[in-house]
Here is the input.
Amino acid sequence: MRAVSLSRAVPAGLIVLITISMASALVATSQGTGFVERRLYILAVGEAGGKYFGVPSELVVRVGPGTGKVFVSAEPLSELDMQASARIAALVAAFVAGVNYFDYDYYVEIVSNSTIVGGPSAGAAMCVALTAALLDEPLNTSVVVTGMIMPDGLIGPVGGIPEKVHAAAEVGAKLMIVPLGQTRAQSLATGQVVDVVQEGQSLGVKVVEASTIYDVLRYFGVKVREPPINISVELPESVKSVMRSWAEDSMKQYSDLVKEAEALMNQVSDAYKAQMLDLLRQAADYAAHGNQSLDEGDYYSAASDYFAATIYADEAVWVGKIVAGQATINDLLSEAKSAVDEAVSKYESLVKDRFASGADASYVTVLAEVGRRVVEANASLAQAEENPSVPDLVYIKWRARSAIDWMDMLDAINASGKFIPVAALKTTAFLMAYFAESVASYVESLTEQSLTSVWTYVDEAKTLADKDPYASLGAALLASARLSAAVNQAFSIDPKGVADALKVMALRAVSASEERGIEPAVTVAYIQRGDGMFEAGRYGDAIAFYDLAVINTVAYTSMIPVGSTSSQTTTPTSTETPAAIMTTTTSPTPTVSRPPIVTVVAIIAAALAGFGAGYVVRKV
Here is the structure.
């Protein structure tokens, strides 16, 4: 066996996009007691004098006993975004491998003939190598991959793929994996859209698409147990009971508020009456959806819709009361403040009395939801006090009350018996926020999207890291989910297909939670809400909720290893392999259901020349 040598020195100029990986001849070695190593080639697209070409760099990962630290080294330098990508790759690898993220340390090293190494799009390569190391599995050395790894396990879009096909052929690859929808991609050299499949055939490289990390691992021949696709997810009866009470209480509150608003209409001018009628129409629309969800037994969706209906109806009431002279804005401010104070007091007492040092894994899923809602309501109130308005104060009041409702869930779910300490919560929150911050800057610079909410939750997660680990985690997970949803929607012409793929990942997430003994109440609730949005044709909203389901689960379950369960693996079979690399390799034959084939990503060519290149090597 031999390692493929670098065939071309890196010239001065911009070096874009590294995310193709290729296993070197050194499949695995021990690096100290209990450490396993994997080596991959990562191929950049370099530019000199207006010409683009592939430039190999070497990725080395080592995994061994530790405490969840990720060490990143690049010779000579690395940028922060590459470090964020390495951390997410490690977290997803731990989830896929079914181990506790905090039982290992992860060493990621990139050796490049350049001055600065950076970018988020080497994630898929890193995740493959780290997963193989965690499972002590060999890698099919005839396979290469290019793509980001997102926290939801999807393979994110990249650019420069036509150049990378040539780079793949240069190092002897027979199979190249690209993100779903990118078999037609823009050449950085010519600006033309290239059929990458045909280009690969002319070079002796077969090009295939993959949507998830599971797809990629199959091609590399890594035997990994995939959580089954549980198509009949159900909430426990105790959880259903709580959510049904939320829905029924909100339905009654909505009904009472509508009656109050209608009585006030006789006391206001026609202009204000029209405003109130418009608010009640919006409330009625949500209530109608709530009625349907309630009839179907989807209590979380019903509660969410009635919650929205209640807010609009209450807003109509307060417009009427203030205009009719029955109340002032300060009265509403006082009511909102009272609701927030109650939520903060109950939450702080709850954490102090029961969860100061950490919490059972099943309870963490709920505490993150409660903490985030309390913090949001409190922060929003502080802003609203400076410039109070009816819509803002009404929303704050009901947001605080929803946080109190969520506290009831703690008595409805079953404990897993697996404790997660505060330190682990802080680390995971920081990791998720760090990645969201890194990738969000790329998305904003190359699209017209404004990711204000992502930045808001990133800042919130960082600010709360030491003060409130539960709220910090909740904010970080929401930031990551909204980022993933934004990327999926920005670079896709088939949001329905994206939602389909994410639904499959979410259903696997339910199984992953159950295998670790964690009550997946929050995950299932998000899936059901996503289903409702999907059926209504609101695919963007469905993507957001499915993303929340997956990312929440990846974060929680990666802190808890899989228990003793029956194994379900991917079994590789022999296939053609370049003799110069190794004598026997494998190609994947899945033994479990695969995600539906969907057409997901149609890349905005000009944007991806930079965004897809995400993994950047610069020569100074």
The two ends are 35 Å apart (CA to CA). Residues 1-31, 564-620 have pLDDT under 50 and may be disordered. The longest strand covers residues 51-65. The first helix runs from residue 80 to 97.
